């Protein structure tokens, strides 16, 4: 059997039990295999999944082309957290230190010091800053939505999720993407309401959408907007931006 002409990256995971295929704007096709996997089986996997791979690659093609055309990396000058109407001015200063440090000189301003030319380090530092801010602001917002709707959840976690704006477990535990801070308030609010409704109905049945519509009558418009919401998230903050809006 001839191997199909798909470019891909291969990643070995000690936690993986089965082979997994991911397609994202940043990485294209990524194949995750468990430790000890015999790579001679990859052509067969690509053949079986060729239709899905082709569709997924076509879906992210515009985003990949946009990312490839972006200018060279530079530290962002500002961070706009639209969901909470907050903006940060970002300054940077090179020092000979081996590690980066982030300092708060006044409200709304941060300064990054250290080897600021290292893109990976700066993105990691800003990512941690994003998560901390999301942990400060998103749980109280979720709690407010919970009180307003009467929908209860068991706990909330903030993560930099790869493929979802939010999710809810069967136990009422809600996970929120830290990047929700970048979205306009009405979209972030909708994500929170959507996940709270999953504490009652885990599926996307008619009963679920009826409950969503009760608390968010404009949900159809919000769903459409979320499909394009990736453009609100700056390049440095993207782990891999959500393609599927919600689960």
Could you list some keywords that capture this structure?
four-stranded mixed β-sheet; three-stranded mixed β-sheet; alpha/beta; disordered C terminus; 10 strands; 247 residues
Describe the protein.
- The protein is of the alpha/beta class and 247 residues long.
- 36% of the residues lie in helices and 23% in strands.
- It is globular and about 55 Å long.
- The two termini are 37 Å apart.
According to DSSP, the number of beta strands is: 10
* Low-pLDDT windows of residues: 241-245
**SSE succession:** EEEHHEEEEHEEEHHH
Report the structural category. Answer: alpha/beta
Distance between the termini: 37 Å
Question: Measured on Cα atoms, how large is the radius of gyration?
Answer: 20 Å
Largest sheet: 4 strands, mixed
The percent of residues in helical segments reads 25-40%
Label the overall shape: globular
Mean pLDDT: 89
